[in-house]
Design brief:
Low-confidence stretches: none
Structural class: mainly beta
Number of strands: 7
Strand order of the largest sheet: 1-2-3-4
Distance between the termini: 24 Å
Radius of gyration: 11 Å
Helix content: under 10%
Strand content: over 45%
Length: 74
């Protein structure tokens, strides 16, 4: 598996999850100009899946493998 969830972030960029347990386990960001950035997650093999922007302007995502909810503040 590769990218799973996608959402528009508070910065108007597209944010997505990389669910692959070996090569993924990251939150990714693509700007409207095409700049691409990846942010590794601290929990090994958490397999981030769904992602959304919360009312606190943070990104919230599910961790499929660990059963947790994660929060990422861009």
């Amino acid at each position: 598996g590769g990218a799973a969830g996608i959402t528009t972030g508070p910065d108007r960029a597209l944010w997505f999850t990389e669910v692959d347990p070996v090569y993924g386990n990251k939150i990714g960001r693509v700007t409207t100009s095409g700049a691409f950035t990846e942010y590794p997650l601290p929990a090994a093999r958490s397999q981030p899946y769904f992602i959304t922007t919360g009312p606190d302007r943070a990104l919230w995502f599910t961790e499929y493998q660990s059963g947790n909810i994660g929060r990422f503040s861009p």
